[in-house]
């Protein structure tokens, strides 16, 4: 059964678009029936139900648990070769790299190479060629491919993708299952939104005079998809949402997620995505960015990562704006500084439980992970401090993410570990910071960082402002009488994907709606900042953390289409003059015959003063 929230979203879409469509469709039946050409746009019946993918429970002895255990052994016992794939042809780079387990860096699971500039250029050329053909494929045929892909990923490919995500990206079972379920949602729900968009027709106020229609074209050129390590589902969505809309894509996966991403790529090829529509091009970051942003056929960049990298991409595009054949579409999401703000009327147990999960699940590496907790003095000492610290200290950080009692595992790679280590050193030396629990790390076997809670006494400290992407939670205790002042400060310094407020006082909740209207893309009430679901809580950042294009909505699909409006007139226009000019039919006929008989030079003559008159 579809959830009430998901049903509401689809129902609302159905109530808006078909209503507008109905206003213009009434007089089109006879017109369409006489047309001898194929339809330029497609229309769909909207009677299907849609729901989020059900999460499997993996109880001991269950079929899914047995299937997953087999898949985990399969990934561990074989070092998979991941090729560069351009237009269906596999290439191997000279230099070989390995994807290793973040929690056991001596154990590789895949080896791969980086595409050099010539291969990236080849991928661009093949993408541009493929886009012309792919854009002409009917929407219904594309939708069929995506629905087959959803079935394959939810079924036969599910356990291999989950296993690669757990092992290669260091996710626990639940986190990996949620990730793959999100991927299925993207593949299943985006086609529903495409049907909604395709059913729109422009208004026609005079029946039988003309027909107005709109077709959804892809962008001319190619789209570069640059995906992150932390979500397999988002990585695939960055590549395949533009493809669904008629674009060709060069997908640069993260080195730290390359195996799970490659399994998804294989599933989509099996589902029927033609060669060249999505090209799988692992590459060094700066080389890839340099080549794609210097090409005149760049049509767009779809990116998820950090705000710093997004700014670099934006600058590279701006530097080359005079050379492009399009205005490239730039879609980017960064995590930013997500926060939990607790009011004195909040339930402490709810605030503590939600904060621990939001801050430390997946070692704080989600783009929506909670990085700051704001607590009133009236709740901190007696209600929140002790359970927050005790539970955090008891969390199991396993050397093996596949153990079911593991709450989180190692951080993704050496670069992340070194960055987090520097943050911990700064915190230890800062006079306005005090580590309450955690603070240690170890890289001898894997990249381990203990869940850490830091008391911050100064809101101007960099810990309160910067995205950490780490299992580090900053806590600021504010005086109850400075509630509004603190909220204003938080709105200034915390720009992120998600903010959460915890309160039972409805007046405060209304104030929070206003105070945090701009600085976050999603605002949750009495719930954690993580766990947003496709179609139910579409996500996109606020302020300088992203373009807020709301993945999992029709809005995100519209970013990847260039609609063309077509007007077919059935009542010919022969009048040159308007009625208010009071020129009768006879004069109009004489004027027209005179104009037709004269050559082009006769339209200008000279008056008595010698001035040329048109």
TrEMBL record:
<dbReference type="Pfam" id="PF00171">
    <property type="entry name" value="Aldedh"/>
</dbReference>
<comment type="pathway">
    <text>Amino-acid degradation; L-proline degradation into L-glutamate; L-glutamate from L-proline: step 2/2.</text>
</comment>
<keyword id="KW-0520">NAD</keyword>
<dbReference type="InterPro" id="IPR016162">
    <property type="entry name" value="Ald_DH_N"/>
</dbReference>
<dbReference type="InterPro" id="IPR050485">
    <property type="entry name" value="Proline_metab_enzyme"/>
</dbReference>
<keyword id="KW-0560">Oxidoreductase</keyword>
<keyword id="KW-0642">Proline metabolism</keyword>
<protein>
    <recommendedName>
        <fullName>Delta-1-pyrroline-5-carboxylate dehydrogenase, mitochondrial</fullName>
        <ecNumber>1.2.1.88</ecNumber>
    </recommendedName>
</protein>
<dbReference type="InterPro" id="IPR016161">
    <property type="entry name" value="Ald_DH/histidinol_DH"/>
</dbReference>
<dbReference type="GO" id="GO:0003842">
    <property type="term" value="F:L-glutamate gamma-semialdehyde dehydrogenase activity"/>
</dbReference>
<feature type="domain" description="Aldehyde dehydrogenase">
    <location>
        <begin position="95"/>
        <end position="564"/>
    </location>
</feature>
<dbReference type="InterPro" id="IPR016163">
    <property type="entry name" value="Ald_DH_C"/>
</dbReference>
<dbReference type="GO" id="GO:0005759">
    <property type="term" value="C:mitochondrial matrix"/>
</dbReference>
<dbReference type="InterPro" id="IPR015590">
    <property type="entry name" value="Aldehyde_DH_dom"/>
</dbReference>
<dbReference type="GO" id="GO:0010133">
    <property type="term" value="P:L-proline catabolic process to L-glutamate"/>
</dbReference>
<feature type="region of interest" description="Disordered">
    <location>
        <begin position="591"/>
        <end position="614"/>
    </location>
</feature>
<comment type="similarity">
    <text>Belongs to the aldehyde dehydrogenase family.</text>
</comment>
